[in-house]
Write a structure and sequence with these properties.
Helices cover about 40% and strands about 10% of the residues. The protein is built from six helices and five strands. Helix 1 links the parallel strand 1 and strand 2. Helix 1 runs parallel beside helix 2 and helix 3 runs parallel beside helix 4. The radius of gyration is 17 Å and the shape is globular. The mean pLDDT is about 85.
Length: about 200
Amino acid sequence: MKLEGKRIVVTGGSDGIGRHICLKLAEQGCHLAILGRDKARLGIAAEEASGLGATSARSYCVDFMDSAGIASAAALIIADLGGVDVLINNAGIWHKAGPLDSISDEMLHCTVQTNLTVAMQLTQKLLPSLRAQGEAAIVKVVSKSGVLAQAGLYQSGTNTGMFAKAGEDVPNDIFTEPGDLADVVIFMRSRPAKLWMHDVRIKL
């Protein structure tokens, strides 16, 4: 897919891996719809993307726990951009590791909603627009913990603020950089049309 001029939606785009994906896409001359929960950080990310060459960069402040809000954001994005070519479901949260019975009901609901359900809800709302394009793509960014269940902490991660937000003290300095993972997303989406990359696993 030639990325220049493509209309791309990125969830969790104001911070961490999502922000770096947006900045890399901006350099390709894309139209960006950046979704997240923090209005101030979203505005900064959109400004950064515009400065790096995005054809346009719009921010959408969305409460991912609100199904109606997700649907409204999807409709607004389609109206603003005239359609969507690529959806990158990147938003995710982390809760402090521990046995299942030590995790509150609220945290369980928030984790599943943000890391899984919102991706399905947003994809559902954008599918008609994606299907109407000559070429389109959906990317889902997940951590190892979204693929393989393990007890305790995981041996690696990404150098973002996710662990700190959960009150977890981890050695971020030894983790991979979010910009490097953003490069992988750009690589996947910029391959020739006949090369289908269904699953890419990065061991950190």
